[in-house]
Amino acid sequence: MNPSKTNIVYGILCAALSLCLLGLPVHAASGTGGAAGDATDQGGFFDPITDPNWSADLFPISIAGISMGGTQPPTIHEPTICECPSHFFGYPVPGIGITYWEPAFVAEVTHHPGRLLTLGGDDILSSYQQEFGAVNGNSSGVSHNGENRAQVHWYSYPIFRIIGVFVNGICLNDEGGFNLVTSTEIDPTWQDDIWANVFSPEAALFANSIMQLACVADAAAASVSYPLDPLFWCAGAWGPAYPFSGNPNTQSSAAGSNALVMSKFLAREFRLGLMWATIGPEAECSAVISPVWLKTQFRVDPIYPNPTYGSPIYIGQTEVRWGLVPPANYPTEQDSAYLLWVAHQCCLRF
What we know:
By secondary structure, this protein is of the alpha+beta class. The chain has one domain. It is 21% helix and 21% strand. It has helices at 3-22, 32-35, 54-57, 129-132, 159-162, 193-196, 209-213, 215-224, 254-271, and strands spanning 61-63, 66-68, 81-85, 92-110, 115-116, 122-123, 151-156, 179-183, 276-277, 288-289, 298-304, 313-314, 336-349. The strands form 3 sheets. Strands 1, 2, 3, 4, 7, 8, 11, 12 and 13 form a 9-stranded antiparallel beta sheet that branches.
């Protein structure tokens, strides 16, 4: 095997072992969680070392068909030996299959437009509040059309690259370094349900009781195992994925509503071609465009107002299990932030 590829495999194993030995997933975290203990706090600082739920979300890791760590079976399966085009000449070359989870994105969901929850709570976008209908400084989050509309700040946050783990790996995402990629305050279509349908004209097909009843199955599946990717119009127990706007259609709880808004944004990113599929038979050689989001590709790791430790959380898993009772993860002033772990199914070529 190519020495550089061998280093990647060793890097994965060493990083996983080091994180366990360091005891990072303790039940008292610094960073964002420490800054958000008071109900009057308006933000904190995310610590990429202590705040992620390393012990549950990092594992299992599978290399050449051998699964290491983790008590929950993986949702992705890569063959022991695989074959993909060469990076240099394009002819097929063999490799070994690996699957793993990468902490790659941070999503802030706020009802205070412009508030950067994981960067100290600074307000940098208040000048857009009147033009695009988002109200600043109002915890009710009431927008121009009277709805409780939330805004999303989407960061590229490739922690493996930031902490210097397998920075040259061909299987990592290509997002580069830390970056605020998107802020919905400046997007008029996010502020209005009708304009949001520009990106999802099929939403009308699912706006009926029969299609919504199918979401009960998705909620049940997400609560006991994994969500159902074929039911792409559902976000499990959190509610319907349409429309792709900041309107939390359900009000079961603040934690569930914020998670639903994050899911709507994630589904819209897939629709716009800004988020690609990294699992599935077609994605083993490289990420591929998918107009429909893959819910099983993500683990949701709440990091604000408090970091969450325990079993992995999947799209649509009822908040009763992870964030309904304070101080577990109940939103402070209705705001939440999440670290998104992305599943990778990759052929590591020789």
